[in-house]
């Protein structure tokens, strides 16, 4: 079941709006899903495939910057140049979409806690026990803090 998209090239100073995805690649040696961009098949990891399906189900047609797709990982000079631009890419994004992984009962609970906080409500200590986000691989990525701190608006 392939995911389909169209890609386009924009510069960091281009006024086009886009979202940036903050996620964990997963095992890059296991790229079992197809992403078809402008007719070109790109093999992607299960975690990225799941993230794209979820994001585009809620926001179809949104322009999305994804490092594993937007950076030619086989071209080292290009990859190094793009990594140097990551701060600008995440800072300029309209939204940074944080993909923690597929939902579990614990992540659903975490989302309920976040909704309470966002609404200005008070939390009980029990609501904060065993924070699921700390168990997710996403929270241990090197770029996570930077991606969130640079976001003008983040969506989990």
From TrEMBL:
<dbReference type="Pfam" id="PF06985">
    <property type="entry name" value="HET"/>
</dbReference>
<feature type="domain" description="Heterokaryon incompatibility">
    <location>
        <begin position="18"/>
        <end position="147"/>
    </location>
</feature>
<protein>
    <submittedName>
        <fullName>Heterokaryon incompatibility</fullName>
    </submittedName>
</protein>
<dbReference type="InterPro" id="IPR052895">
    <property type="entry name" value="HetReg/Transcr_Mod"/>
</dbReference>
<dbReference type="InterPro" id="IPR010730">
    <property type="entry name" value="HET"/>
</dbReference>
């Amino acid at each position: 079941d392939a995911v389909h998209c169209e890609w386009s090239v924009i510069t960091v100073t281009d006024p086009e709006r886009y979202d940036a995805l903050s996620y964990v690649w997963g095992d890059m040696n296991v790229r079992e899903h197809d992403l078809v961009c402008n007719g070109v098949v790109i093999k992607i990891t299960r975690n990225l495939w799941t993230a794209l399906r979820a994001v585009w189900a809620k926001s179809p047609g949104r322009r999305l910057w994804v490092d594993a797709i937007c950076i030619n990982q086989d071209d080292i000079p290009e990859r190094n140049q793009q990594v140097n631009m990551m701060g600008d890419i995440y800072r300029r994004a309209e939204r940074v979409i944080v993909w923690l992984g597929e939902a579990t009962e614990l992540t659903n609970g975490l989302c309920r806690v976040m909704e309470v906080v966002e609404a200005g409500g008070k939390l009980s200590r029990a609501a904060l026990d065993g924070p699921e986000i700390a168990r997710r691989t996403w929270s241990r990525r090197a770029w996570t803090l930077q991606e969130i701190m640079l976001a003008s608006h983040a969506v989990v």
